[in-house]
Each structure stands twice: as C-alpha cells, then as structure tokens.
C-alpha cells in the first residue's frame, strides 16, 4: 500500500480528535460533549451533507453510474444482513444475531461523512447521488433483520400490520428523513439560494465534524471494555466482516462504476455499521437483543477500523 494514503489519513485533524476522545476516556478525564450539543452536531452533519449532495445531484446527468450505484447500495443492504445473520447464529441468539446483522447491513452516516472529508483531502471527485445511496441503505437492512428474527422465532407475530409498522419506523427514522429531505431541498434550491447558506453548509463542516468525532471517540473508548468481556467472536466479527465487505466491493465495483470517489464511498458504506438508526429501531423491534453487544461492535471497533485503516486500504485497492 502507498503509505502516504495512510499517513495523510492519520494526520487528518478530524481523526486525531477522535483519537483524543479515546485517550480522554481511557485516562478517566471529565472531558465530554453535552448530549444536546452532540445531537445538534449530528443533525447538522446530516443536513449539510444531504444539502450539498442535492446541489451536486442537480448539476449531474442521470447516467448509468447513478442507477448502478443505487442498485448496488440497496442490494448490499439486503445481502449483508442475510449472510451475516447465519454466521452470527453460530454463537448468538436469534434476537442478537438479527440486531447485529441489521447493524452491519445498514450504514454509518458519520463514517460516510468522514469518507467524504477524506476524498476532499485527497482531491478525488465523487457524485452527489452517493448521499441518496447512503440514505436508501438505512431501511432495507432493518427490515431484513427483523424479518429474519420473525421467521426464525416460534410464536412470533408475523402479521402484515406489524411488518408495515416496522417498515414505516425504518423509513421515518429521523436520520433517514433528514438526509433525504435535505437532499431534495438541495436539489430544488438554485445556485444563488444555496450560496446564501454556504458558510453554514460548507465552511463550518470540517470543524463540526472534528468536534463530533471527539465525542464519538469518548463514547467508543468507554465501550471497548464492554465488548472485550463479550468474547473473541464478537471482536473478530466486528473486524473481519467490514474488511471483507469493503475490500470485495472496492474491487468488484470497478466493473460497473467509473469514478474512484463513488467506488470508495460504496465500499465504505458496505463496510460500515449503523450505531444510530439500527439501535433506535431495535429498541422497538427486538427488545430482547442486547444493545451492549451490537452497539460497541459497531461504534468501538468497526467505526475506528474504517476511518483509520479502511479508507486508505479501500482506496488503494480501487487505484
């Protein structure tokens, strides 16, 4: 691997703030980001990336690349939870296997945003339609995970009303709704109108991302110990599966996608795991699933793995 890709990523201020957060949690510092501020920043990041994606999409022609990216994204959101569920069933209960499979089939918006920052740092262009691909990958994996749990559990309610309720909850999840809504608004807004809020959507973006990753580092550092206590299987899964998914998609996407930036983003979406939308959905759909298992796997292991090693690795394979 070209080491400059790795060193450039590791010297990224946003990533260094993430590492600072982990360090702060390990030395028992009282450093913390207020929950209300953290929520605002996460909403801001989704809004900004959605709006900018909509603006880019409004200047794009609807080419075969766009249709292929959407198809691949939705296919991955269905295939990944399907195959990982049966691997997870070797060690975990139906509820835990379903929740973890849904998390790894879904995506991490913050990982996606970090990947965009990385592409901008490397000067690699990407399509605004990739924001829509990310948003469309949230719901299918949640639905597949819940259906797998329902089909494998005895005496489980499989009525159409329950399934529709879960589908509606997945689609109307706050993060999904905000990213899609911002994408549409960005698409509709004219260049002059978009320029009016450019200082908010563009100039402040990297600073807010750095603060948010600091908060993610603090949270991740606190959850590492919990995951270690769960045994080696969960830890190996949280490392191996994202790398396999990301590397496979980075290589195979070249057959249908042309832009290196789009290929990196679809690879990072395949490799990432949700620690916001899926846990919120699983509280309702699978209350017996253990959040102290699937949340640390996604947040404390897979997230830092992708933003440190994954990004330069997938880009190396693409190039």
Fold topology:
Elements: H1 3-10, H2 13-26, H3 35-58, H4 64-88, H5 94-105, H6 109-122, H7 129-136, H8 138-152, H9 160-171, H10 174-188, H11 191-196, H12 198-203, H13 205-228, H14 232-252, H15 260-271, H16 277-285, H17 291-318
Helix pairs in contact: 1-17, 2-13, 3-7, 3-10, 3-13, 4-5, 4-7, 4-8, 4-15, 5-8, 5-17, 6-15, 6-17, 7-10, 8-9, 13-17, 14-15, 14-17, 15-17
Q: What are the secondary-structure elements, in order, as H or E?
A: HHHHHHHHHHHHHHHHH
Shape: globular
Q: Gap between N and C termini, in Å?
A: 10 Å
Quaternary assembly: single chain
Mean pLDDT: 83
Rg measurement, Å: 19 Å
Largest sheet: none
Count every helix, treating DSSP H or I runs of 4 or more residues as helices. 17
Query: What is the number of E strands?
Result: 0
Structural class of the secondary elements? mainly alpha
> Low-confidence segments, ≥5 residues, pLDDT <50?
none
Strand fraction equals under 5%
- Name the helicity range: over 70%
Plain-language structure description:
- The protein is mostly helical and 319 residues long.
- 79% of the residues lie in helices and 0% in strands.
- It is built from 17 helices and no strands.
- It has helices spanning 3-10, 13-26, 35-58, 64-88, 94-105, 109-122, 129-136, 138-152, 160-171, 174-188, 191-196, 198-203, 205-228, 232-252, 260-271, 277-285, 291-318.
- Helix 14 packs antiparallel against helix 15 (260-271).
- The relative contact order is 0.19.
- The mean pLDDT is 83.
Give keywords.
globular, 319 residues, mainly alpha
Task: Give a quick rundown of the structure.
This protein is mainly α. 79% of the residues lie in helices and 0% in strands.
